[in-house]
Design brief:
Layout (H helix, E strand, L loop, with lengths): L12 H4 L5 H5 L10 E2 L6 H8 L2 H6 L5 H14 L4 H25 L3 H8 L2 H34 L3 H7 L3 H9 L3 H26 L3 H6 L8 H15 L1 H10 L3 E2 L4 H38 L9 H12 L3 H33 L5 H23 L4 H28 L1 H4 L6 H30 L6 H27 L26 E5 L5 H13 L4 E8 L2 H6 L6 H19 L3 E8 L2 H11 L4 E4 L7 H6 L2 H5 L7 E3 L1
Parallel strand pairs: 1-2, 3-4, 3-6, 4-5, 6-7
Helix pairs in contact: 5-13, 5-15, 5-19, 6-13, 6-14, 6-15, 6-19, 7-8, 7-17, 8-9, 8-17, 8-18, 8-19, 9-18, 11-15, 11-17, 13-19, 13-21, 14-17, 14-19, 16-17, 19-21, 19-22
Length: 644
Amino acid sequence: MPKKIIRHPFLSCTFAAEFVTEKYENKKSLSEVNQSVDVTAIKSPWKRFMAFLGPAYLISVGYMDPGNWATDITGGSKFGYTLLWVLVVSNVIALLLQSFSARLGLVTGKDLAQASRDMYPPFINFSLYIFAEIAIAACDLAEVIGMAIGLKLLFHFPLWLGICITVLDTFVLLMLLKVGIRKLEAFIISLVSIIGISFLIEMFFAKPDMGDVMAGLIPSKLSNEALYVSLAILGATVMPHNLYLHSSLVQTRKFKRTAPDIKKSIRFNIIDSTIALNLALFVNAAILILAASTFFVNGYFEVNQIEDAYKFLEPLLGSSWAPILFAVALIASGQSSTVTGTLAGQIIMEGHLQLRIQPWMRRLLTRLLAVIPALLTCLIAGEESTGKLLVLSQFILSLQLPFAIVPLIFFTGDKKIMGEFAVRPLFKILGWIAVIMIAGLNFYFVMLQVSDWVHDPTMAFSSKFMIATVCIYVFVILFFIMIYPAIRKSKKQKDFVLHGQNKITIANMGVPQKVFVTVDFSSADNKAINRAIQMGGKDATYNLLHVVETPGAIIYGEETVDFETRKDIELIEQYVEQLKSQGYKAAFLLGYGNPKQAIPELTNRHGADMLVIGTHGHGGLKDLLFGTTVEAVRHKITAPLLVV
């Protein structure tokens, strides 16, 4: 839907761009940072390229989170170097799919969740949302446990206390998001550098046999146990929620919407992804090689716990620095992955459901979904069970992969959606090979596990029935998302047109007749009223809105007669008289109680043509706790909103 802009002779184009309907705003992925990095004015090719670097590094931290550590340590200690080829294949698949994801966001201006909502029926869209949220929770579970283990190793906190402390990083992250996307990217790159340098030094201590390392790059047959770990490695490396995230992060760059510029943007992002994901491959390979050269070679085949790996590093490598570097890298890994998990959760909720809640609430809910099972596992099953829980979380990510990959391949390969930027047939084939391989291996392993449960005489029939129902439901959804785009009516493809291909109809919206202005008797009132007058001129009627927020107003509403209410009426009457004395038609309206409810109610009831609202009177921590009036009001009114 195009921007719905009200034009006026006194209004500049830049200012007019603020008049956007709520429906359009909701279609912007990560609207807080969407197109916040302007590269259109950069002339130097090198500087332009550097301006595009960054999104893939936020993606890459997901490939080196604590869940990856658990799978790599388990794989290295159990099977030596033999699973190195699985890491390499997983990285190639990740690079292919991330290039698809970036292409989707750059060309269509939609993230993967938004595109899925536009393509699939509501029930399927909601199912995809649920699967994606499960993946987010599984990823967050790994981050919680990893951070808690890192705090335990460095500061000797009990694991349960470390798990509880991880809730606090919700607010640390929200503070980071306020500084801008480029500074956030710099923060993440710093953490990634800490991880990379730490393992580079660890490799120096470990001195692995390079002949065995090279042999591990040759594919080999996998046992059922090795297959389970390999699928966990695949899920931890490709990471389904990162596909949603990358399609959104690339939209933080503002560039000209011409074919040459889009091609350059795609090329720059592929280079960005190649560098970042190969760095992630190095870290993952280093962890697996460290586990193989330290534990497997010395006969420690059952090192499944990150704590055990930490404990054995010093005596086996002969350096006190080795475990310290290991713990520091683990904390950096958990904290950096928290950022990407939070952003991906916001993208998935807003894209699939078009539902936006306060960021702190969204983050807290996601974190609690991870903290509760981690805490229960720690308290009931013991700390030694957390390693198995980490590997299980990554296996869950692998199970969710097809539900993100299948729509992505359909979207990026469809010329009706992507135009000339659709992926080439060869890459589509490679994408489908990846889907078939992942889905096939998952199907094989799930069937093995289900078969064991079905033949288990101790398991109740109701449990078996529930497992069978869930499996059938999942397979039906997967089958449906694979065939639906082929049978979908072509007329619904209109949602997927490139920028510039829609026919724009210019309508004369006229000058607004009823202009409402919120006032709070601060210095912001003067700017808000003057801006309103620029919009309406002498012909409009100006209604000044003020909401009385005293305890009496909250309880008694219009019947309140306290001192502050009387004073507010006196002040707003003075505003009205000043406007009338200068030849403007003016009146006032009072609301009582919560401004987030009273302002929309008055605006809609009295049929405002436009609402002008001044900046709020608080910031920082109060924004996190209460949000802003503007944010709440804009979702409830039908008139255009101007924020001054």
